[in-house]
Amino acid sequence: MSKIKLPLRRYNLVLALLTLILSTTVKGNEGSENFIGSFSQDEIKQRLDDLNADVDLRLTSEVKKYLRDYVVSYRQSSEKLLGRSLIYFPAIENKISEKQLPDEIKYLSVIESSLRPDARSRVGAVGLWQFMKSTAKMYGLEIDRQVDERKDVAKSTDAALDYLRDLNERFGDWTLALAAYNCGPGNVRKAMRRSGGKDYWSIRNYLPRETRNYVPKFIAVTYVMTYFKDHDLSPAYPDQLFIKTRKAVIYEQTSLASIIEHTGMSIDEIRSYNPSFIGTHIPKSKEGKVLELPSEMMYTYLANTEHEATLMADPLQDLAMETQVAAQKIEKREAIEAVPLITRELSNYNIEYTREPKSEVKKEAQKKAYDLRSKVLKRREDVPEEALRATADRKRKTVIKDRIKKIFNL
């Protein structure tokens, strides 16, 4: 037995040494070998550093897992997200620029709702930014039976950015602000007390499980949304992207049924453009509620509605309409100029137009009228009063006789 055990012990020792050497070699080459496609981990890490983001973008094992999911395993879903970003990111970027916040904050909406304004979580969070009702009302969003402004892209974006700015001011760190947005500032403070850390990565293990993966997922989305072309990802353009829409401000209470009547759209189509209108009508508002419809439908509605509404400015579409009108005028003018003019000559005729000065004509007419009136008055003065009365009686009797004849058909 001892002769058999000795070779086995030597074999196990050699195997352990070989495993140690191989693992060391692999770790040494891990950064330089291909990680996703033709890109190594070192290259991806460098790309994250090149973004100069305010959020601490680290390439951890969790980030690598999500990167593989977005770039390799679920490419089709990633391309749909890229397509939706073309609809919502321009408006979000404008708000971020106005408030002077980090540009990468826009990717938080991808993590929260997959860029779906009507998204609802199992715990009741709603909208593009997944607001809970209490937080939404704290930041001025209206929620009742007719309207849920958590689904309004513009208003919910304003509220979300204000909330994120407040969280950053509270913690002094954008990465901690993202974590607090997910699990609440109270949980972040508790994790800081228990861990003694002051940044996300040092308190990560003390945060709720969902929040531990929240920031790594955000980092992966930020990378994919920025460098998607290098990984042969193409946006899946949604149909909504190619439909031109216009917005109008509605001040009076307006039923959705009246919009259906004037435009011929279905209730689902109207709500697809206006997800915040969850009831049967748009409520009355001094500030006005924004209604969005396809451009032609909006023009039809405004032309037929009796309610007060103001079409919101759209520089691109307004310019296109002005250009179209100008082109039609030019085309009409060119068509008129293209018609040949027929010249006619009048020979052996001299046509002269003469007209008295207006002032002289007026004086002459006034003089004739004055003379005629004077003659009538003079005649009436010469006729006795009894004769005038007799004449009036004869006329009256004649009128009465004519009426009797008509009545009795005489």
Describe the overall structure.
With 410 residues, the protein is mainly alpha-helical. Among the domains are: 35-231, Lysozyme (Orthogonal Bundle); 243-320, no CATH class. 61% of the residues lie in helices and 6% in strands. The protein is built from 17 helices and 7 strands. The longest helix is centred in the first third of the chain and has 28 residues, at 2-29. The termini are far apart. Residues 1-6, 24-31 and 339-356 have low confidence and may be disordered.
Helix-strand layout with pairing:
Elements: H1 2-29, E1 34-36, E2 39-40, H2 41-50, H3 61-73, H4 75-99, H5 108-113, H6 133-138, H7 153-171, H8 174-183, H9 185-195, H10 200-203, H11 209-227, E3 245-250, E4 254-255, H12 256-263, H13 267-273, E5 281-282, E6 289-294, H14 295-304, E7 309-311, H15 315-338, H16 358-382, H17 385-408
Helix pairs in contact: 3-11, 4-7, 7-8, 8-9, 8-11
Head-to-tail CA distance between termini: 157 Å
Regions with little confidence, pLDDT below 50 for 5+ residues: 1-6, 24-31, 339-356
Query: Taking strands numbered 1, 2, ... along the chain, how are they ordered across the largest sheet?
Result: 6-3-7
**How large, in whole angstroms, is the Cα Rg?**
42 Å
Share of residues in strands:
5-15%
How much helix is in the residues? 55-70%
Shape: elongated
Top-tier CATH class of the domain at 35-231: Mainly Alpha
Structural class: mainly alpha
Query: How would a crystallographer describe the biggest sheet?
Result: 3 strands, antiparallel
CATH architecture of the domain at 35-231: Orthogonal Bundle
Compressed to H and E, one letter per element, the order equals: HEEHHHHHHHHHHEEHHEEHEHHH
Mean pLDDT: 82
The CATH topology of the domain at 35-231 comes to Lysozyme
Counting DSSP E segments of at least 2 residues, the number of strands comes to 7
- Helical segment count: 17
